[in-house]
Amino acid sequence: MTSAQRRPRGRPSQPVLTAERITEAAVRLVEARGHDALTVAALARELGVAPSALYNHVSTKNEVLRRVQDHVNREVDCSAFGRLPWDEALAAWARSYREVYARHVPLVPVIAVTPVRGAPHTLAMYERVAAGLRAGGWPEHLLVDAVVAVESFVLGSALDTQAPPDIFEPGEHAGSAPTFAAAVRARGGGDAAGAAFELGLGALVAGLRAVLAAADGAGAPDPRGS
Amino acid sequence: MTSAQRRPRGRPSQPVLTAERITEAAVRLVEARGHDALTVAALARELGVAPSALYNHVSTKNEVLRRVQDHVNREVDCSAFGRLPWDEALAAWARSYREVYARHVPLVPVIAVTPVRGAPHTLAMYERVAAGLRAGGWPEHLLVDAVVAVESFVLGSALDTQAPPDIFEPGEHAGSAPTFAAAVRARGGGDAAGAAFELGLGALVAGLRAVLAAADGAGAPDPRGS
DNA sequence: ACCTGAACACCGTTCAAGT
DNA sequence: ACCTGAACACCGTTCAAGT
Q: Which phi-psi region, left, alpha or beta, contains residue B153 (left: φ > 0; alpha: ψ -120 to 50)?
């Protein structure tokens, strides 16, 4: 069904413009010069064609973005599932996921709304996560919600990596926010976004353990410890 | 220091263009016609001036966006702090926060990187949250990380509200993702994004209760229940 | 001090014309 | 079938000229 297959005779000729080639060029461009550099004009330049030529193979720039996003998802490491208990594997997946999207922040709003059909690598990632959670005892009906919850936290945390280190410095209005200002001062230096992510990830995964235990049956211990 | 103060004599004259007025007009525009309608040209039109006139009062469109974001934060309901236990108040705050940013999705990447200095309403929100958590027993050094963790989850969940209902429908590649496809089918219909948010919020808050209990002292029960 | 109007350097996208 | 080149309808921003 590709245009290569529709080219049955004659010499192999020159490399042809395809959606796949456009995606690869877009990934190259983003990796080399960042997301701001990904314009239709730059993409066409990279491929040695006129900008309008691209529209014979993709219908919109957003389609290119969706293809890039699926491509980027291959970088997310799901290998911990099957090797570690589900909760540790989930945390490892979340760490890798966040790291990848911290390098591709403009794709965060894209992945949040892009259907998995037509995004094979994204689908493959979810399959590995789902299989790992099922093997860990998660019931089918809660599984997707649990994945989405972790994903929401991960993507929000990926955005947070872009915050300047002094984002919470209250400046001139410190007097009107004494409690918060003191808490900001008491916060450890260094990788603040990373510390918040680890705190939240630990809490979220612990809470999910409790959800699973409660779903498993009434004999499970009370996770609140009260 | 405002331009009104620098206008000591003469009649009150006509309403003057100020950063505050520009912000109000921007909020009006967004509320009436959505974020896509917020262009410099439309904003100038709303105010009855030439687009270039705005640059006498704000240095960039992004500054307008930051001002709108701070304004929007007033809508987030923090009233549960002081009225309810910290964990319930935190959950109520998170629900309101998500709801507001679900209506202002384009502001999500803005709030994630905007310093609180010069954002008085945002700072006031954090102060109420911080005071509520302190009263609930949270130590200063963990407080901001806990808030950031919840915020990351909230903002990710706000993005997730924009996902189409069939975002996880695997389509033609369902065969390569049987576990995930089955879990998607087993998922309840209705407000899927809402269900994932509530599952994650419950888990995150439960996990934070455990973090606090562990920080409070060695006598606290083991949250894992093992 | 602050507004206007023209201009600039971009965007993504369309489409008639070519081959 | 697919590419080029010109054009379109926008963007945000700058700046000389006015008052």
A: alpha
What are the helix (H) ranges across A103-191? 108-111, 120-135, 140-160, 178-186
Instruction: Give φ, ψ of B207 to 5 degrees.
Output: -65, -35
Q: What is the pLDDT of residues B105-125, one digit of tens each?
A: 999 999 999 999 999 999 999
DSSP class per residue in B102-170 = HS-GGGHHHHTT--STT-HHHHHHHHHHHHHHHHTT--HHHHHHHHHHHHHHHHHHHHHTTS-TTTT--
CA A107 → C1' C10, Å? 22
The Cα–Cα gap between A165 and A193 comes to: 8
Amino acid letter, B189: G
pLDDT tens string A58-92: 999 999 999 999 999 999 999 999 999 999 999 99
- Its pTM stands at 0.91
B140 in contact with A, Cβ within 8 Å: yes
Distance set, CA A82 to CA A57, A74, B60 (Å): 39, 18, 50
The nucleotide lying nearest B17 (C-alpha to C1') is C2
Q: How far is Cα B81 from Cα B98, in angstroms, rounded to an integer?
A: 17
Which of the four pLDDT bands, split at 50, 70 and 90, describes residue A8?
Answer: very low
* Tokens found for residue B38: 């917020």
At A15 the pLDDT is: 60
The reply to whether B196 touches chain A by the CB within 8 Å rule is: yes
